[in-house]
Amino acid sequence: MIEVMAAVAIIAFSMLGIFSLVIYNQKVYLSTKDAFIGALLSEEGAELVRNVRDSNWLNSLPFNDGINGPVFRIDATGDIKSSIQAVGGIGDANARLKILGGVYRHDSGEATAFSRIIQIQNIDEPGGAAVDGLKITSLVQWDERSTTRQRQTVVFLYDWWQ
């Protein structure tokens, strides 16, 4: 009887260790998944602004036409330039991303934990009369187990076409 109880105790402690490891791995998986999505959404924001700049060149418009700052949201759905809308900041409800059909967007879908904003700063060369470039900061924020996480992508876009 004592041997059976000892065997059951050893098996119980072994199973407890295994279950603890499974729970820890699940937490790490979810944290890594959110960090990966946040990084991709941040990069996407910067690429969408680059797309607007390139479209402006193709349409013989100023390189920064429609890229209105200092803080806005942007989506990859439909006409990208028309999706640009001013927001108050990362905490603004309009900065919250939703997901519909596997695509993250601001206008419709199921709410997610992610918010994205684009911040714009002009880059002016000394003595220049016009804006020579833009500093684009794409910021994504989400809450993970009562901790706020962020990822940002910073790119510099210049009017090199001129």
Explain what the structure shows.
The chain has 162 residues and is α+β, with helices and mostly antiparallel strands. It has one domain. Helices cover 35% and strands 31% of the residues. Strands 1, 2, 3, 4, 5, 6 and 7 form a 7-stranded antiparallel beta sheet that branches. β6 and β7 form a beta hairpin. The longest helix is centred in the first third of the chain and has 57 residues, at 2-58. The protein is elongated. The model has no long low-confidence stretch (mean pLDDT 90).
Count of individual domains: 1
Largest sheet: 7 strands, antiparallel
Shape: elongated
Per DSSP E runs of 2 or more residues, the count of β-strands stands at: 7
Oligomer designation: single chain
Give the termini separation: 89 Å
Helix- and strand-based class?
Answer: alpha+beta
Share of β-strand residues = 25-35%
The low-confidence parts are none
Write down the overall mean pLDDT: 90
Count of alpha and pi helical runs: 1
CA radius of gyration is 23 Å
- What order do the helices and strands follow? HEEEEEEE
Helix percentage range: 25-40%
List keywords for this structure.
about 35% helix; elongated; alpha+beta; 7-stranded antiparallel β-sheet; 1 helix; about 160 residues
Describe the protein's topology.
Blueprint: H1 2-58, E1 71-73, E2 85-86, E3 96-100, E4 103-105, E5 110-123, E6 133-144, E7 147-158
Antiparallel strand pairs: 1-2, 1-5, 3-4, 3-5, 5-6, 6-7
Q: Could you write a compact summary of the structure shown?
A:
This protein is of the alpha+beta class.
